[in-house]
Write a structure and sequence with these properties.
With about 80 residues, this protein is an all-alpha fold. The protein has one domain (about 5-80). The chain has helices at about 5-20, 30-35, 40-50, 55-60, 60-70, 75-80.
């Protein structure tokens, strides 16, 4: 199984502002509230999946990636809202 957290964390680190804009949030409590919403998490997963390296997208289907994002929601929120 591929470790999805590494490429996802890298994507979040480099495209954080773009990702937050895609889910209509900004750093801080507004983002946390927005991302507690399942629809916003689905948008986040779709946007991040498109930003992943091609080899990762070949190995992992979008549905599996979306399930991973929902399973690791708290870790991803922490990365997105950090100062």
């Amino acid at each position: 199984m591929i470790d999805l957290m590494t490429p996802l964390s890298r994507t979040i680190a480099t495209r954080r502002a773009d990702i937050l804009a895609a889910v209509h949030g900004k750093p801080g409590t507004a983002s946390v509230a927005a991302l507690q919403n399942d629809e916003a998490m689905t948008t986040l997963a779709r946007y991040c999946y498109a930003l992943l390296p091609g080899v990762v997208r070949l190995a992992v289907k979008e549905d599996a990636f979306r399930a991973f994002v929902f399973q690791h929601r708290d870790q991803l929120l922490a990365q997105l809202v950090q100062a």
